[in-house]
Specification:
The complex is a heterodimer of chains A (112) and B (115). Chain A contains no helices and eleven strands. Chain A has 112 residues and is an all-beta fold. The radius of gyration of chain A is 13 Å and the shape is globular. Chain A starts with a strand and ends with a strand. The model of chain A has no long low-confidence stretch (mean pLDDT 95). Chain B is an all-beta fold and 115 residues long. The chains are: A mainly beta (112), B mainly beta (115). Chains A and B meet through strand 5, strand 9 and strand 10 of A and strand 5, strand 9 and strand 10 of B.
Chain lengths: 112, 115
């Protein structure tokens, strides 16, 4: 079974631009979560979607948004990029309940 | 809210030596606890999870962890380190009730294995 796939792997954007990251979960998984990883703050929860509905959101500004499609694929969008948004963005999926998260390899975003 | 603390941001061991990575948790309810490993330029891979079925949890690659409620600890061990174990290890606790989509992670411990 294929794992969680994130595209693209690397992105370079300029401050003020917006960016969209994509995540395809493991087949059959309906829950998709997003995390931001930085050297300073570590791993932080962004939000989670289940059956196209956002169930929970972390403590991030409204510039960070996401959505989930009917096939469970998910996208996250960051508008008006800031230098501090440079990070590894990880997507994870699970089949729900107490099942563990399975992570993708991430998208490394660099904002210049 | 749940939290975890990893003691030691960097641990260095010799090949063949015991690996011990420390994690203490804070939780107001019986916790779901996890250990993940991250290799350079990759995502997180689940090593093992604790869900109250057994206090000693065996994971992949020879790792295991013991849940000790009295010490609020969930330390990760491996009897004999291999060069391939060099990576960053994260302890995490579920912060989403019975579901595990929202994890709170520790700051991570970088494991170096010396030949």
């Amino acid at each position: 079974k294929a794992g969680v796939t994130q595209t693209p792997r690397y992105l370079i954007k300029t401050r003020g631009q917006q960016v969209t990251l994509s995540c395809s979960p493991i087949s059959g998984h309906r829950s998709v979560s997003w995390y931001q990883q930085t050297p300073g703050q570590g791993l932080q929860f962004l939000f989670e979607y289940f059956s196209e509905t956002q169930r929970n959101k972390g403590n991030f500004p409204g510039r960070f948004s996401g959505r989930q499609f009917s096939n469970s694929r998910s996208e996250m969008n960051v508008s008006t990029l800031e230098l501090g948004d440079s990070a590894l963005y990880l997507c994870a999926s699970s089949s729900g309940g107490d099942r563990p998260l399975h992570f993708g390899n991430g998208t490394r975003l660099t904002v210049t | 809210a749940q939290s975890v603390t990893q003691l030691g941001s960097h641990v260095s061991v010799s090949e063949g030596a015991l690996v011990l990575l420390r994690c203490n948790y804070s939780s107001s309810v019986p916790p779901y606890l996890f250990w993940y490993v991250q290799y350079p330029n990759q995502g997180l891979q689940l090593l093992l999870k604790y869900t109250s079925a057994a206090t000693l949890v065996k994971g992949i690659n020879g790792f295991e962890a013991e849940f000790k409620k009295s010490e609020t600890s969930f330390h990760l061990t491996k009897p004999s380190a291999h060069m391939s174990d060099a990576a960053e290890y994260f302890c995490a606790v579920s912060d989403s009730g019975g579901s595990n989509y929202k994890l709170t992670f520790g700051k991570g411990t970088l494991l170096t294995v010396n030949p």
